[in-house]
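Model it.
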Amino acid sequence: MTTALPGDSQPTTSAPDSAVMPAESVAGRRTHFNPNRIRDHLANERTYLSWMRSGISLLGFGVLIVRIRWLRPPLAPQGPGNGWKLGLAFSVVGLISVALSAWHYFAVRDDIERDTYEPSDRWVLLSSLVLVVLGACVVVYVFNVPFDVFNVVVVE
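Modeled.
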């Protein structure tokens, strides 16, 4: 839309009225007028990938905790202990974080598309609390393992 202002030799161009209207379907394709939409989607994908890396790391740490038990000397007494429970807890939390990250990605994607996204603190607080509890369990486990078990002398 062009309009001539008094005293102007050149007409000025203003934004079309459709720029302020909500997204409409044009020829079967949805049009978007949010200039930050692509950046928001890319940020959402980076966040998703970060949560996936964290979940895989937790899974690996859980497996490591379980496997450390098998690294003891062959004749060292090996009771069932509680290490496997801690490793299992880390693995389960890793699996849950992978599943929740996929769910959260799709929920945020839909919110971005509808332009209704509001950040939530509950997942940040919940995941932080779970990791603090698991970290405390690791500290308790490490300081409760007797050190004399690792100093077994094998005489042949």
